[in-house]
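## Example pair
The file below holds two records. Each record gives the amino-acid sequence first, followed by its structure token line.
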Amino acid sequence: MKLLLVVACALIDADSRVLIAQRPQGKSMAGLWEFPGGKMEPGERPEETLIRELHEELGITVKEPCLAPLTFASFAYEDFHLMMPLWVCRRWDGPVVAREHTALKWVRPSKLRDYPMPPADEPLIPPLIDLLGPG
């Protein structure tokens, strides 16, 4: 089974809310909510991928020291296995803008389960609640 490495980030605002992004039409799992991030390119380190993806998807600039690893998800889809480390970021430059997603939403940790997510994203919620409290 193919192993796919995807990196994700929980952007956290000053009010301890987490940013989630809605997958656009035309992509697999369209309409579901996810943590921003994406696939690693050959030769990239995970942190480099995250910095690139956050700029491409949200228009923000993140510096590597502002990324803190929190947890990871390991999930077997039907035709591939996904490994997804999750970083936390509380500092970035620029306004957050939906460049590739249908919508963005700042959500209290305890409300993250109110938004349908891909199965691989769901195990990332409890560590965020442990870190931030239910909000």
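Second record, same layout:
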Amino acid sequence: MDLMDLADNLDREEQRYVREGFENDEELSLYDMLFREDLSKADIKKLKEVAASLLKKIKAKITELDHWTDKQETKAAVDNLIRDELWAELPKCYDEISISEYRQRIYEYVYTRYSVAA
């Protein structure tokens, strides 16, 4: 039964990322990390674009860097990319404090998920 429940949950998550307009569950994960309840429809649309774009840029940056988690400079390059993209692209309702928190959350996700390669 547990295995059937797990399969059902995976199917629902897969359906969700397709329904939300994402190419994969990674984009959905970034979107979920950035999502807030007080967003307008326009902000949600923008947030979806930011999540998809940010993931592509992070993966591209990681592929440029040799063992990116081994050196402080390369870790900083990825962290700075995340910071710059969030500052430039998030809807205006995100303030400095929330951007900093989201930046940290996304960096930790990326570090854990892509510590070897994208």
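Notes on the second record: The radius of gyration is 15 Å. The helical segments are 2-19, 25-34, 41-64, 72-89, 96-113.
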